[in-house]
Amino acid sequence: MKGNPTVAAVLADDLAAYGARRCFGLLGTANFKISHALVEAGVELISARHEGNAACMGDAYAKATGELTLVSVHSGPGLTNALTGIAEAAKSRTPLLVLAGDVPTGAVKSNFYIEQAEMVRSVGAVCERIHTAASAREDTLRAVTRAMRDRQTVVLSLPTDVQDAILPGTLPPLALPPAPDPMHPDPASVRRLADALLSAQRPLVLAGRGAVLSGAEGALTALAERSGALLATSVCGHGLFAGDPWSIGISGGFSSPAADDLIRESDLIIAFGASLTHWTTKRGNLIAPGATVAQIDIDASRLGYQMPVQHAIQADARVTAETLLAELDRRGVDPRQG
């Protein structure tokens, strides 16, 4: 980087070094500098006709690739136009970083001034901000870390005066903290779940987005084959078991009548990375009276949030399925038919 680079140029180089390859956006005066700098840093800028489109494109791309994905919007109406897409990404726990241009620090009389932090939080996203030229790189690293390590949709506010400030020096990008290892389940909880599985006559394995993200397909398929369970997914896990003869497809609003009947007959439903929303359970009508429900999720706040569950395990979906299979092996359980 030649001369005395601006904060925008340095941050763009940092974002590229963190793995950003594509940015979806619509240009305005407040986000032009950062967007131009991203292109100079080798990041592809994909233009949209509306900020809402840009946010939805970024949401879909991040879900499909798992990459650090950027969205760039103007201040004021640029951010408000993007809110629906940001809200969808936030509710889906999409690791998305929205670069929101903002008015110069203290310019509260500007027509483009809004309380970005309050607006962003109101739709469930995380708000971060580059506060000064001296803190901008650390502020950006914090935003990227929350997006990629905590799987959060983060809006990073970029005041234009801070973007334009000179940031001398050629220090390399700050290092992202390493990704944590998958969360392992409590052994006692796995033993109790194995007891429930061996007692069930008509078990069902229900996989959601968490199962997709953890790469649990193989372990869940093996678990179903071992236990005689049927396989189903939430809408967000659709396609995970495509082609498997024991898959009944989607559970919930898009399920078939036959799938509805089979799910209602299940006496044990084990949800791996599925939130068990009213869409997935048809407002609870797919859960038979007396059925046992188990839920596995890395987020403790989601366990039992949508409906009561009898087994709540905070852990990675794939690791839990593998641990449950190992417990069945330890007990010498043979594959069950039907």
Question: Explain this structure to me?
Answer:
The protein is α/β, with parallel strands linked by helices. It folds into two domains: 7-164, Rossmann fold (3-Layer(aba) Sandwich), CATH 3.40.50; 187-330, Rossmann fold, CATH 3.40.50.1220. The chain is built from 13 helices and twelve strands. Helix 1 packs parallel to helix 6 and helix 3 (51-65) runs parallel beside helix 4. Strands 2-1-3-4-6-5 form a six-stranded parallel β-sheet, with helices on both faces. Strands 9-8-7-10-11-12 form a six-stranded parallel β-sheet, with helices on both faces. Strand 1 (22-25), helix 2 (32-40) and strand 2 (44-47) form a beta-alpha-beta unit. The chain has helices spanning 7-17, 32-40, 51-65, 77-91, 116-122, 136-148, 160-164, 187-199, 209-213, 217-227, 257-264, 278-281, 317-330; strands at 22-25, 44-47, 69-73, 96-102, 126-129, 153-159, 203-207, 230-233, 247-250, 268-272, 292-297, 311-314.
Classify the fold: give the CATH topology of the largest domain: Rossmann fold
CATH architecture of the largest domain: 3-Layer(aba) Sandwich
* Gyration radius over CA: 23 Å
Strand order of the largest sheet: 2-1-3-4-6-5
Number of H/I helices: 13
Which percent band covers the strand fraction? 15-25%
Shape from CA axes? Answer: elongated
Determine the oligomeric state from the structure: single chain
String of helices and strands: HEHEHEHEHEHEHHEHHEEHEHEEH
Mean pLDDT score: 95
